[in-house]
Amino acid sequence: MTNSTASFRGDGLDGCIPEGVATLESILCTEELYRRPSRPPDYETENRALVALARALADSSSTILQTLADTILDVFRADSAGVSLLSKEEGRERFFWPAIAGKWKPYIGGGTPRNFGPCGDVLDRNSPLLMRHVERRYPYFQPVAPPVEECLLVPFYVRGAAVGTIWAVAHDERRKFDAEDERLMRSLGTFASSAYQILASLESLNGEIVERKRAQDDLGRTHDLLETRVTERTAELNSANQELRAISAQVQQAQDEERRRLGRELHDSAGQLLAAIKMNLAAVLTMPLTTEVSRPISDISNLVDQVTREIRTVSYLLHPPLLEMAGLASALRFYVDGFAERSKIAVEVDIPQHFDRLTDAIEIALFRVAQECLTNIHRHSGSSTASVRITQADGVIEMQVRDAGKGIPAEKQIDQNASGGVGFRGMRERISQLGGSLEIQSDPNGTVVTARVPVPMATVAANEGTAAA
Q1: Is 0.70 surpassed by the pTM of this model?
Q2: What is the Cβ-side half-sphere exposure of residue 321, based on CA atoms within 13 angstroms?
Q3: What are the structural domains, with CATH classification, of the chain?
Q4: What is the distance between the alpha carbons of residues 242 and 407, in angstroms, rounded to a whole number?
Q5: Residue 145, exposed/middle/buried by CB under 10 A (0-12, 13-18, 19+)?
């Protein structure tokens, strides 16, 4: 398989059908899907697959297509599975394969012509197709090993337009696809297309942030160079430093605004669709139905509920609406409740009973610090407990996040206290922009992260007045 990518290109065949090849109808066997005995729906497995896709989007959205291919391979018990997407090369449309699982995984990056290939035929007919021995019609499959015994392909839609296919392949006669396979592939494809839309939006945002961050880093290096060469230009360097902080603040603000927008869009659009599905299912369940019909519908209704909860979790992690409506104390308590339920870590929250609102910038900064710390505790510390404590004295808000885990290795502590990894660096930058500080203390008995932020005098007076009352 050393020339795997070339094996699938089919160069020179786009729009040109060679003589002597089999007709499309001779390799199609789609009707057999509905004649074959269909295995009963396994809604528990389907539920796990949808939840896995939702978690892939929340944890690492860039791998959603590969997660889809891996899921199809596992759920369908196929030999190979993958995703084909339309692209343009030198003005010609082609399909390329960004994600493959199973025996054909070495062929990632390959593809087929738009106008003479299985995926193109699926888009032309705008319906799922079942094919066998595709090499009889498409000669560029002939050197490919292992060969295709059967291949089930389903259109992949984004914003209502078919932009590719998802597919599962059997390389021998032991695996025969049926109507349940088609239904399940449609279900997975519909959910994955929504996730892919979100991924496209995130990639556009990450490209913009990377460019701004690159500009920020360039200014930082320039600052260091000028400072070591000439001391008489201190005033100019201070001005450059202020500009650097302004750019960093703009990048952070852009991130927060985009998180807020994406969170609302996910909650409003996908949430409304799921709510409509739930209402329709509820209406169906009020009708006189047999047990064989009502039970699957009830299972689907429960599945919709679970997907709705997953979407609400992702939406809240992107931007908590309580932060704007009720302030830091309420938003933090709500987030900790959900985090404790998901992570099974017991988290104690200690916030003064009469804790007034802070500025938007301070509230979002402290919330993100707590969020990042608790995520690190879950991923790395091994601690079964944690605590979040907020105090205010002498015009300074202090927040401590503590765990009882294994601590941070000594060599990593040096890096984190100097500049930090991506997470700690982001926390430190947020707090620094507000004139505050962030400290990390860790040993084998646990880790404590302390953030201190000065608050405006009007806020101090309001909090002190509320406490006195």
Answers
A1: no
A2: 12
A3: 4-199 (3.30.450.40), 200-318 (no CATH), 321-468 (3.30.565.10)
A4: 35
A5: exposed
Burial of residue 23 (CB within 10 Å: 0-12, 13-18, 19+) is: exposed
Whole-angstrom Cα distance, residue 130 to residue 111? Answer: 19
Q: Cα–Cα distance between 50 and 192 in angstroms, integer?
A: 9
Could you tell me the two tokens for 294?
Answer: 């009502």
* DSSP state string for 201-265: HHHHHHHHHHHHHHHHHHHHHHHHHHHHH-GGGHHHHHHHHHHHHHHHHHHHHHHHHHHHHHHHH
CA distance 154 to 183: 10
Amino acid at site 303? L
Residue type, 314: V
**Alpha-carbon dihedral 124, 150, 56, 446, rounded to 10 degrees:** -170
Euclidean distance between CA atoms 304 and 274, whole angstroms: 7
User: In whole angstroms, what is the distance from residue 327 CA to residue 453 CA?
Assistant: 16
Judge whether 184 and 76 are in contact, CB under 8 Å: yes
Backbone angles phi, psi at 130, to 5 degrees: -110, 125
Distance CA 68, CA 85 (A): 13
3-state secondary structure at position 177: coil
pLDDT lower than 70: segments of the chain: 1-16, 56-62, 194-205, 207-210, 212-213, 215-220, 222-274, 308-319, 413-423, 457-469
DSSP class of residue 287 equals: S
- Burial pattern 415-432, b for ≥16 Cβ within 10 A else e, equals ebbeebeebbebbbbbbe
CA distances from 99 to 20, 70, 133, 297, 320 (A): 32, 9, 22, 32, 33
Q: Is 462 helix (H, G, I), strand (E, B) or coil?
A: helix
pLDDT tens-digit map of 180-216: 999 888 888 777 776 666 655 555 557 554 576 676 6
Q: Are 30 and 130 in contact, with CB atoms under 8 Å apart?
A: yes
Phi first, then psi: what are they for 358, rounded to 5°? -110, 180
Q: Which residues contact 433 (CB under 8 A, 6 or more apart)?
A: 245, 248, 249, 252, 361, 365
